[in-house]
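Hey, quick one: can you model this chain's 3D structure?
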Amino acid sequence: MRRRADCRRSIAYIAVRMSGARNALGVHLRNVLVNVLSANYLMPNRLRARLLRACGNSLGAGTTVKSRCTIAGDVPIRVGSDCFISYQCVFDARAPIVIGDRVNVASGVTILTSTHEIGERIKRASTPLRQPVSIGEGCWLGSGVTVLPGVSVGEGCVVAAGAVVAGDCAADGLYAGVPARRVRDL
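Sure thing. Here's the predicted structure for all 186 residues.
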């Protein structure tokens, strides 16, 4: 009797350990598929989009994602239809990233969703924070733009190359600079 109970406990323990291993393996496999295989420049764009969808990301019809893009984190990103995401973009998807329809993202754009609270002197990067980012329909993010956590870019905005978007952007404006400021209405 006792052996049978010990055996059941051992099997339950192994099952729990295996499910944890499968989850870790699943995350690792997803990272390899998204950040190695689909990021390869030899991968055709249509196959890249299929692979990104198969890994849980939502890409609308007609959306193109070019090579060497990285999606770090465990939250799938949502990209609308008829979008263009150029080369070497980085998506820190530790919180939701939602990109509207007809958005153009130029080369080298970084969208961040994770940051830290400012801590005491001995360790300034304290408690991790995750904040979602949304990019409205019809926007254009220029080359090398950085979008910080918790930012919402309104519909129809243009963000100039090299800008750092640290606060929300109202719709139909041109934003430039570090930090990005509204330069003019569109």
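One thing worth noting: The chain has a mean pLDDT of 86.
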